Amino acid sequence: MTSRQQYHEELDALHERLLEMGALVEQVVQQSVDSLARLDVPLAEHVIATDDTLDAMELEIERRCIRLIALQQPMAADLRLLATILKVVTDLERMADNAVNISEITLRLAGQELVKPLVDIPKMADLAVRMVHDALAALVRRDEQLARDVCQRDDAVDDMYALLFEELVVMMKNDSDPDRVSQCANLMFTARFLERISDHATNVGERVVYLVSGERVKLG
Asked: Which of 28, 32, 113, 120 has its Cα between 20 and 30 A from that of 195?
């Protein structure tokens, strides 16, 4: 096998590892919201424990990128791909951190009755997870249009966050029970964490646009 063949095999393997990390991030984001909706402590603890695996994956991918850059000195498109992966892996790790934050809220609220059935938060999570999935699909396919579409969806998540924030503020103003007020504040934090996840998915979309076109854009 030539060194060039080996290089492309290593690049393909690195790409696959990134997608494995992305799939796990999608999973823990969904699980974190499920744990909150059901106040499921074991599921929340599982998400928190999985963060160590994701941190290790981030470091592994970073090391492999740096090794390829140092040993192969890639040019043009390959260098842009490695630079993109280095950025994307950071966004994925931060998404996972937000999933951990949501799971920690589950632990804080365990044993309480939710002030309202969770409807908007799971909808936000569904949108955010779909953004993550499609942003990674755009990366795999080098699909600039899909990447731009992902970025446009960030507005819908922002709108849901703003509406939920207003609703929870009203509930806090009209309730004198400190536990319920505290719970509303925690639900606000949850919505904010999901909004941040969509922001990171938007970042990934912008990286894909850069990868394909060489154009640095701000779409979120």
From this structure: 113
Q: Structural domains in the chain? A: 3-213 (1.20.58.220)
Model confidence, pTM: 0.93
Secondary structure E strands in 106-211:
none
Chain position carrying tokens 């740096």: 66
Q: What is the pLDDT of residues 159-185, one digit of tens each?
A: 999 999 999 999 998 888 888 899 999
SS3 assignment, position 219: coil
Rounded-to-integer distance, Cα 139 and Cα 195, Å: 21
Between the CA of residue 155 and those of 88, 120, 124, 137, what are the distances in Å? Answer: 21, 15, 11, 20
Cα gap 198→126, rounded to integer Å: 10
Residue type, 215: E
Q: Are 179 and 110 within 8 A, CB to CB?
A: no
What tokens does 123 get? 């909808």
What does the pLDDT read at residue 2?
61
Measured CA to CA, the distance from residue 162 to residue 100 in angstroms comes to 22
DSSP state of 112: S
Residues 6+ apart with CB under 8 A from 196: 94, 98
Using alpha carbons, list the distances in angstroms from residue 61 to 16, 69, 73, 82, 147: 10, 12, 17, 10, 22
